[in-house]
Amino acid sequence: MSSYDAVDTATRVLVLNSGSSSLKYQLLDMRDGSRLAVGMVERIGEKTSRLVHTLPESGGDSSDGGSSGGEGGRERTGRFADHAKALEAVADELAHDGIGLDSPELAAIGHRVVHGGLRFSVPALIDNGVLAEIERLVPLAPLHNPANLLGIRTARALRPDLPQVAVFDTAFHTTMPEYAARYAIDTATADAHRIRRYGFHGTSHAYVSRRTAELLGKDPSEVNVIVLHLGNGASASAVAGGRCVDTSMGLTPLEGLVMGTRSGDIDPAVTFHLRRVAGMSVDEIDELLNKKSGLVGLCGDNDMREIRRRIDEGDERARLAFDIYIHRLKKYIGAYSAVLGRVDAVAFTAGVGENAAEVREAAVAGLEALGLAMDAKRNTVRSGEPRIVSPDGARTAVAVVPTDEELEIARQTFALIGEDRPAIA
Ligand code: AMP
Asked: Whose C-alpha lies nearest to ligand 1, atom 12?
């Protein structure tokens, strides 16, 4: 228990997001949620890996020479053969700045874990039992959970005494009622193979729905929010009084909205057709629907900026891709309005949701009957702050709320390891 003794001074949390060949990290100070370091290692295990390390909010430290990289940060290339070598290099960078992993101010490490199944509805303090449970969920997230486990095992080897917490992408959605979470298929088959709707991006939906309530000056328990997380992956959620009651992603992140490279909703019989008539293998169909569909499948581009540029030049394929994307979004806004009954706010977030004013405008256009309206001027103001873009007095507020999954993971990690830690803003 010795690591818990430093409870008053240990206010930092390291957030790790470990992918199959990448390791993203952020070091946050939980007194104010500020970022002491942000970085990533890419191409782990390949011939040349790259580490980029920045100190975004290090202004206060500038006098003591620790932040030699300055605002632009530091870049290191070399070969990091595995995640252990990559994390060692990250630890070196942090130590160089005087904020190393051995610092008594480091309270915990928070890990993003993609799939928590039905087992994890809240973050978990990692021990061997939790590791075994995450392992058991690998068949449900064969690409992600093994990479997340790698990050956890590596960090535990480096700091075995430090509390480490797993924060699950699926957890926020475990409050979905059974009638929203179950597919209408044979129950025995579904149960035998754990087939149900789990949902993803939960950390973002949790953070954004709570921030939206704050923006409205209300407690989360008082508001109903539709969150539209529109990044390269995209998902919608219906949040009633702070609890998720429906979400658009399902067993996997393939269901729901049109995404950068994923089809979203599709008649499942398309897959039989591709197998039987087009002669494609299951892996080829998987790749088609996950990597070669969505916006990229429709028009060759998945970056919304490029699609808008092409539309401005009169490109018909880009126009149709945009229209299909918006049509699906509107259907979800309508469906979740019906699910929630009363909607206090529709919140846009992530790369497209935060930046593409045209997407927000088109998604809301014509939905006056649902109480939605847009203030064109507010909508086009660029800002990194949460803001309302609907006119004053609109029945349903339209909000832009930048997501911050790392801060949310750090917050949940910090909350779990000690109830009487200083609260952050
Ligand atoms: P994310 O997955 O949240 O990082 O979002 C990435 C996506 O955001 C990119 O693929 C772009 O399509 C989109 N995006 C980022 N910046 C802009 C922008 N200024 N305007 C429109 N789309 C943007």
From this structure: 303
261: exposed, middle or buried (C-beta count within 10 Å: 0-12, 13-18, 19+)?
middle
pTM (2 d.p.): 0.92
Strand partners, 17: 24
303 lines ligand 1 (CB under 6 A): yes
pLDDT tens-digit readout, 241-278: 999 999 999 999 999 999 999 999 999 999 999 999 99
Orientation of helix 269-276 relative to helix 282-291, angle to 10°? 130
Asked whether 402 lines ligand 1 (CB < 6 A), one says: no
Does the beta carbon of 175 sit less than 6 angstroms from any atom of ligand 1?
no
Q: 3-class DSSP state for residue 27?
A: strand
Q: What CA–CA distance (Å, rounded) separates 162 from 298?
A: 48
217-405 fold = Nucleotidyltransferase; domain 5 (3.30.420)
Instruction: Tell me the longest C-alpha to C-alpha distance in the chain.
Output: 68
Q: Where are the domains of the chain?
A: 3-168, 217-405
pLDDT of residue 64: 33
Q: Which fold has domain 3-168?
A: Nucleotidyltransferase; domain 5 (3.30.420)
Q: Which of 205, 304, 380, 403 to mutate to test the pocket of ligand 1 (most atoms within 8 A of CB)?
A: 304
CA dist 2 → 7, 100, 161 (Å)? 10, 19, 8
Q: Are 421 and 33 spatial neighbours (Cβ–Cβ below 8 Å)?
A: no
Question: Is the C-beta atom of 302 inside 6 A of ligand 1?
Answer: yes
